[in-house]
Amino acid sequence: MENPPPILESRDDKKSIQAVLDNLKHPDKFLARVEFLMANPDRKSWDELELIDGRFFDRYSAPILDKEKKIHGRIWFFRDITEIKQNRSLLEQQNNTLEERVRRRTLDLEKLNDTLGILLHSLEKEKKVLEETATINFQETLLPFFDMLKETPLSGRQQHLLDMMEHVFSDLLSSMNSSLQHLRHPLTPTEMKVANCIQAGKTTKEIAVLLCCSERTVEGHRSAIRRKIGLKKGDNLLIHLRSFT
């Protein structure tokens, strides 16, 4: 930011200031600051000027003092900071671009996470259905054969094999039994047997024969089971028991 030589040679402050004002984007602000410093000669100043041609200047001004702090005038320094401003603006643009990329990437990851959550939930439901179906099929297919085998004469080896099969089958039902045992009011061992029979699709009469008790006793156990698992009138006991698998 330079004044033409004729103006400098004239040593006219007003002409010099006007020459500067003609090049500034905000001349009123510049002039107000100059007038303030003239009215307050002991004050220092440091501000930034923007020219109409797009350049920027850093302006510093301070009073000239002697050893006795007497003011003998004012000195002005101007430094072209256009390149610094441009580099700073470029860095800000790059930073904004990077932040936008991060924001979009975060949104993409959140959507992906939601999709994975839905998929996992669906897989869990499908897994539960498969487990329930497999358990029901085992119960409805194997239990009748166990009952039939128990009513026939068996050798020691055959009885041993039957016991092993029952043990394996009991492990398959462990998930349901574990859930039932963690009820607020756990089932008794007899109620557990009745619950397993009900889940296998056995009728009250069939359960009474298997457990060597009366049908009224079985009905009592059924009522106790319904109460402990929190069933209301009209709720299907078989469906609820199978939901524990």
Question: Which descriptors would you attach to this protein?
Answer:
245 residues, mainly alpha, 2 domains, 10 helices
Describe this structure as you would to a colleague.
The chain is mainly α and 245 residues long. It folds into 2 domains: 5-80, Beta-Lactamase (2-Layer Sandwich); 129-242, Orthogonal Bundle (Arc Repressor Mutant, subunit A), CATH 1.10.10. It is 66% helix and 11% strand. The protein has 10 helices and 3 strands. It has helices at residues 5-10, 13-21, 27-39, 82-150, 156-172, 174-181, 189-199, 204-211, 215-228, 237-242; strands spanning 45-50, 56-65, 71-80. It has a 3-stranded antiparallel β-sheet with strand order 1-2-3, covered by helices on one side. A hairpin with a 5-residue loop joins β2 (56-65) and β3. α4 runs antiparallel to α5 (156-172), α7 packs across α9 (215-228) and α8 (204-211) crosses α9. The radius of gyration is 47 Å and the shape is rod-shaped.
- Across the major sheet, the strand order is 1-2-3
Major sheet: size, sense and barrel closure?
Answer: 3 strands, antiparallel
Number of helices: 10
- Count of spatially separate domains: 2
CATH class of the largest domain equals: Mainly Alpha
Percent of sequence in beta strands: 5-15%
Structural class: mainly alpha
Distance between the termini: 85 Å
| CATH superfamily placement of the largest domain | Winged helix-like DNA-binding domain superfamily/Winged helix DNA-binding domain
H-E order:
HHHEEEHHHHHHH
Q: Could you tell me the mean pLDDT?
A: 80
Q: Percentage of helical residues?
A: 55-70%
So, CATH architecture of the largest domain? Orthogonal Bundle
Radius of gyration: 47 Å
Backbone shape: rod-shaped
Quantity of strands, as a count: 3
CATH topology of the largest domain: Arc Repressor Mutant, subunit A
Unreliable residue stretches: 3-8
